[in-house]
Write a structure and sequence with these properties.
single chain, 420 residues
């Protein structure tokens, strides 16, 4: 039986560690997500009868979906608020390449790998490609831009590319997920093209358009309210209350979802629109700092629970083929797709490799898998699907968590930037 007192004590320790660890680990071959993942594994493997709850995202699919959903949308708001560079075709040309070339290539190659190596039905193969194609905005903190500043050039191209890519492609992974759901609904474990027309019109065109427009409308309205409202009581930038960022996040997400659009996409667009309303105002730092603290706490909790699931047998359904597929996505598919997408991009060779290699897989992948499994079956046992995705996230957290700090620090030194 779970002891509530033990849970409270664990939450207290976790919150304090989440506050201290980012500064302690800065530039070192460790990361906060990795520490909490290992803590979850270690605590649940202790040979002691600890009063801790059983963790099973497969059985508790709906809880998993909503918890990971909240973490992702908060992270998307933080990513959008951190970006200094105004949105534009030329300013964001590296981002557009990552979204238009790298992400589709990652999706297609991963799907083909699952179909060939794992012998999964087409719908399940497409689902694996969809959930492992986006760069995760939650776990990419080691390679994200820092706090907002008033200088649009105050962010290097590698950090900017990975942050903007993570902010947008977590919303654009929805059409890919719906492609897998649509195929499963029409053809079961077979193949059909009967779903393509409605998918392109509804899940791609309409929902993406509503997501962007909804995010712009909410962002501009809030930007006016924050910085230009005539009444000082309504001009929230005068009061410097950080929790307003949560209100902006949930409002944008909820209204857009009610209108039938992609809330993930809307939240990131809303954050960018709020930045554009008054780019040099210090209130952006207040909003960003608050949302980053909330994100850090939630990330620590989710990664601890993921470690608990792994320690409790979450990888028991993993086959050697599934393990090879997960490692291949991280070491071959994403780097290759990233390199191809960034050919002739305005990046140095080292920066190109960093951007190509650091497509972190994480909590967004867990969300999309939980969401898809709530809509249809895919001809593959749910625990097998979960084992491949969780293993891939585990390897990503370890691999990227160990290497990101030193790699980014070295990249800064080679560019002549001092890092503390």
């Amino acid at each position: 039986m779970t002891n509530p007192d033990a849970v409270f004590a664990s939450l207290g320790v976790g919150a304090l560690l989440a506050s201290v660890l980012p500064r302690v680990l800065a530039g070192r071959p460790l990361s906060l997500p990795l520490i909490f993942l290992l803590c979850g594994i270690g605590v649940y493997l202790l040979p002691l009868p600890l009063p801790l709850p059983a963790i099973d995202p497969v059985a508790d699919r709906m809880v998993t979906e909503h918890v990971t959903e909240v973490v992702v949308i908060i992270s998307l708001m933080g990513a959008g608020l951190a970006l200094n560079r105004p949105v534009g075709w030329r300013r964001w040309r590296v981002t557009w390449r990552l979204l238009g070339i790298t992400m589709p290539l990652t999706f297609l190659i991963t799907a083909c790998l699952a179909w060939w190596l794992l012998d999964w039905p087409p719908a399940a193969a497409l689902l694996l490609g969809a959930v492992l194609s986006p760069t995760d905005p939650v776990l990419a903190s080691e390679v994200r831009v820092g706090e907002p500043t008033d200088d649009e050039h105050d962010e290097d191209e590698a950090r900017f590319a990975l942050t903007s890519e993570a902010g947008l492609n977590d919303g654009l992974a929805f059409p890919l997920t719906y492609a897998a759901v649509g195929l499963a609904a029409v053809a079961g474990t077979g193949w059909s093209t009967g779903w393509v027309g409605s998918w392109a019109a509804q899940d791609v065109a309409y929902k993406c358009a509503v997501g962007v427009l909804g995010g712009l409308l909410v962002g501009r309205l809030l930007g006016w309210l924050f910085f230009r409202a005539r009444s000082t009581s309504l001009r929230l930038s005068q009061h410097r209350e950080g929790f307003v960022a949560l209100g902006a996040t949930f409002l944008s997400f909820g209204l857009t979802e009610l209108a039938g659009g992609y809330g993930f996409l809307a939240v990131f667009v809303t954050a960018c629109a709020i930045r554009a309303a008054e780019r040099a105002h210090g209130y952006h730092n207040v909003l960003h700092d608050f949302i980053e603290q909330v994100e850090r706490l939630l990330t620590a909790a989710v990664l601890f629970l993921l470690g608990a699931f792994i320690a409790s047998g979450g990888l028991s359904a993993l086959t050697w083929q599934g393990a090879v597929a997960g490692v291949a996505v991280l070491l071959v598919v994403r780097p290759l797709s990233g390199w191809l997408g960034l050919l002739r991009a305005p990046l140095g060779k080292r920066e190109r490799w960093v951007v190509a290699a650091y497509g972190v897989r994480g909590i967004g992948s867990l969300y999309y898998l939980a969401y898809a499994l709530g809509h249809h079956g895919f001809g593959v046992p749910a625990r097998e699907l979960w084992s491949v995705v969780v293993f891939t996230v585990l390897v990503s957290v370890v691999l990227h968590g160990v290497t990101a700090g030193p790699v980014i620090t070295r990249l800064d030194r080679l560019r002549g930037i001092h890092t503390p």
